Amino acid sequence: MTYTRIAATWILFALIVAVVTSSGCITSTSKQSNMSQNISFENSTHPAHMNIKKDFVFELYKESNIWVKRGKRAIVYAVFNNVDEDGQAHKFVSKVIPFAADFDVYSAYQCLHFVECKRLKADMLNFIHQLKEPVEVNYTFVGLSQITIEIPQDAVEGTYMYNVVACKDIDFDECNEATTNWGPTLPLVIHVF
Question: What's the domain range around 177?
């Protein structure tokens, strides 16, 4: 009974977020090609800065645990806070890397382990649309990089897990879990229903 109530609460929450987001109540005038606005936290009224802590170097804005209906999309922002000790502007990229899925997804893909599931990895990569161009961020400012999650109508229902890494002054293709040099590796969990 408790699990059913929790699931119903999450679904209701996801529906409310979807309605509010699609209604235009939450908007951003940033362009996807360069989300960096180089806006300081002081006196910022940009919607993406409203609930961001000042004491971080890299985080996901909005949620890192997202419910997305098949055929729909959601948007998350990778946020870079340039507090590098050298006091210079730097270029940042984030990369979303497939990590795992739940057993129902493995079963649907006829896989026992994630490492052997090439089709699942390819589908998970296709769910994610992210900027490959670096975002230049001045010292003591924040930059945003949009991550769009688009779930196809025929996607397998279940939970998909990703690692999100940030790299400073490294190209997108070179940025991975071994080369990450800015902030922690962050989890991104997508529940497809």
Answer: 32-192
* CATH assignment at residue 90: 2.60.40.10
Cα dihedral sign, 153-28-131-141: negative
Q: How many domains does the chain have?
A: 1
| Whole-number Cα distances in Å, 27 to 47, 59, 152, 156 | 8, 20, 24, 30
Name the pairing type of β-strands 186-192 and 73-81.
unpaired
Tokens 């279940």 found at: 158
Q: Tokens for 28?
A: 């951003």
- The residue type found at 97 is I
Please report, as a single letter, which amino acid is at residue 78.
Answer: A
Look up the pTM and report it.
Answer: 0.73
For 2-52, the pLDDT digits (tens) are 544 444 444 544 444 443 344 333 333 233 333 344 444 443 444 444 444
